[in-house]
Amino acid sequence: MIGYIIRLKFLRIKINMITLFMAAVHIGVFYILLHAWSQHKHKTVIYRHRGVNLSKVIVHIDLKGSPPKLEYLTSLLPLLKNIGANGLLMEYEDMFPYKGDIGNLSSKYCYKENELKKFIKFAWKSGFEIMPLVQTFGHMEHALKLQEFKHLREIPMYPDSICPSKMESMALIKNMLQQVIQFHTSVVPLRHIHVGCDEVYHMNKCAQCRSRREKEIDIYMSHLQSVTDIVKLYSPNVTVLFWDDMLRGVDSNYWSTMKNMNDVEPVCWDYATMLHVSHRNLYNYHKKFNNIWIASAYKGAEGVTATLPDLYSRFMNHLEWLRFIFDYKFGGERKSYNFKGIILTGWSRYSHMEPLCELLPASIPSLVMNLLLIKHFQTETSKDVHSIPAAEVFHIYVRDDFKKYFHCEYVELNEFDTHACQYRESKLYTP
After folding, report:
1. Which residues are catalytic?
2. Most exposed residue of 37, 105, 198, 299, measured as fewest CB within 10 angstroms of its CB?
3. Alpha helices, H only, 186-310
4. How do residues 222-279 score in pLDDT, each as one tens digit?
5. Secondary structure (DSSP) of 196-218
6. β-pairing, 153-155 with 129-133?
7. What whole-number distance in Å separates Cα of residue 296 and Cα of residue 325?
8. Residue 412: beta bridge partners?
9. Sign of the CA dihedral 114, 120, 124, 125?
C-alpha cells in the first residue's frame, strides 16, 4: 500500500512537470509568433522615412536598330513625367541627321531635322532634360563599318573601336560632336552630353598607338580628355558623362597620380540582379570626379535575342541599386553621399551588328514598374528595406499604381498577364 502511494506521488510529479513543460512550449511559440507579427507590422509601417536623393531620373532611348517614331516618344512623355522621369538620354547612332562630310553616317530613315527639333523643344517644355549620347571610342560600328572610315579602326578586322592616335579619328569625332551639340543648343539649353567610351575592346593594338609607349589606361584617359576638350570648345558649360567600366580594375597607384577631372562625371552601370559594384572604385571616383551617376536596365539585359524583359530581374536590378545607394557613406565620412542621378538604360541591341533584343513598346511595363519604384524611394524609405522581400516591396508600394496605369485586374511581380490588362502596347502580345 505504501509503495502504491509513493508511485502515485511520483506519477503526479511527472504529470505536473510535463504540464509545466508544455505550457512553457506554448508560451514560447506564442512569443515567437507575436514577435514575428510585430516585426512584420513594424516593417510595413516604419518603411517611411527620408528617401534617396536622386535629382536626375533619366530614361535611356537606344535608337540603334529599332528607332520609334517621334510621335510615339512624344506620347510617352506625360506618363513618364507623372511617374518621376525628368530626362531622356538619346543614343542617336545613325538616326541623327548628320550633314556634309559625315552625312553618310545617317541612316536613310534618320529623323528629319525639323521633326527632331520639334520633339526636343516639346520634351524640354514638358520638363525633360534632353541628353544626347554620341559614342566616341568603343561601339563605333555605325561609322567604322563604312568604307570611308574603315581605315580608322584600331584593328582592321574589327569595326568597334576607333584608333585614338590618328588625327583623322579626332576629326571625325569632332565633326560628330560639333553637329550634335550645335543642333541641340539651337533649340534648348544643353547641360549634359554622354560620350560613351565603354567596352573599348581593342586599344593600344595598332602600330601608331604602340609607338606612344603608354599604358592602355593612359591612352584611354588621354582620349577622354581630348573628347571633353572638343565638347567644351562648342559648349563650355556642358558636363560630360561617360560609362565607367574601362576604369574598373585600375590599380591604386594610378589613382594617386591622376589629376582631378571636374568637367567629367562617370556613370557606374550594373544590370544584374545581384550587383558587383566595387566600393573601392566608387571611392576613387569620389576623389577624382565632382559627381557619380548610376545606371540600371529596364530592358536589354536578358540576352542578345530576348523578346521581352524579365520583370522580376529588372525589378530586382533597380531594387538592389536603390538599396545600395540608400544612406551610402564613403569611408571616414559621416554624411551620406548623394549620387547625382540614375540612368535607366534600355538597350535595343548589344552592339550595332547584333540582332534586336526587346523593343521599347513591349518594355513599357518594365519601365513604368521601375520608375514607380524609384519614385517611392525618393519620397519614403528606411533601412528595413534591406530585409523586405522584393515581392513584398512590389505588393505594398508599386502594385496599386501599376494596376492603375495598365488597367490590370490582377498582377504580381512574377505574374504579369497582359490579357488581364488593357493598355495600348498590350496589343503586341496578342497572336
Report:
1. 199
2. 37
3. 207-210, 216-234, 252-257, 279-288
4. 999 999 999 999 999 999 999 999 999 898 889 989 989 999 999 999 999 999 999 9
5. ------S-S-SHHHHTT---HHH
6. unpaired
7. 12
8. 415
9. positive
The burial class, CB within 10 Å (0-12 / 13-18 / 19+), for 25 is: exposed
State whether the Cα torsion 64-190-74-302 is positive or negative.
positive
Residue range 25-84, pLDDT digits in tens: 556 555 555 554 444 443 433 344 467 889 999 999 999 988 999 999 999 999 999 999
Q: How many CB atoms lie within 10 A of CB 312?
A: 17
Judged by DSSP in three states, 267 sits in strand
Helix axes 364-379, 399-406, angle to 10 degrees: 140
Is residue 123 within 8 Å of residue 77, measured between CB atoms? yes
pLDDT of residue 366 exceeding 60, the answer is: yes
Q: Which three cell numbers stand for residue 181?
A: 551639340
In this structure, the dihedral spanned by the alpha carbons of residues 382, 388, 393 and 395, taken in order and rounded to 10 degrees, is: -130
The packing angle between helices 113-125 and 167-185, to 10°, is 60
The DSSP secondary structure of 370-383, one letter per residue, reads: HHHHHHHHHH---G
Q: Residue with C-alpha cell 514577435?
A: 35
CA distance 92 to 297: 18
Q: Is the pTM of this model over 0.85?
A: yes
Residue type, 124: W
Contact 166, 208 (CB under 8 A): yes
Here the cell at position 205 is: 593594338
pLDDT digits (tens, 9 = 90+) for 113-136: 999 999 999 999 999 999 999 999
